[in-house]
Write a structure and sequence with these properties.
alpha+beta; 3 helices; OB fold (Dihydrolipoamide Acetyltransferase, E2P); two-stranded antiparallel sheet
Length: 117
């Protein structure tokens, strides 16, 4: 009986560790924009308000402001309306780099939660 408890406790610990490592931790947009190379091709999560959005036939992009900065998010399943609160998970991609400074850092969306006005 005691060995079953130990196994269950061990299994719960392993499952919790795997679950927590699989989920990206939420970060701020200013951290991503401040050091985009650190986050390039890594999955991040940000939350904020949609300040601008453009979409055509189910794809598009929208800009998220979390109070620390703004970043564009590329979407393949429609875009949320301006003013919506969103939580976004996705991979960071850099754009043009000049003299060590990256311009055009974006997040390629893999998941999104929306709370409308």
């Amino acid at each position: 009986m005691q060995s079953i408890r130990k196994f269950a406790c061990f299994f719960s610990l392993v499952a919790a560790t795997l679950f927590l490592t699989a989920c990206p931790s939420q970060t701020t947009i200013s951290k991503i924009n401040g050091d985009p190379g650190r986050y390039r091709d890594k999955e991040v999560a940000v939350a904020g308000r949609v300040t601008d959005s453009y979409g055509v036939m189910g794809t598009g992009a929208y800009e998220v402001d979390d109070g620390t900065g703004r970043i564009w998010v590329a979407a393949t399943r429609g875009v949320p309306a301006r003013g919506s609160r969103v939580g976004v998970k996705g991979r960071v991609h850099g754009g043009l780099t000049i003299s060590g400074r990256t311009f055009g850092t974006i997040i390629e969306e893999t998941d999104r939660r929306v709370q409308t006005r």
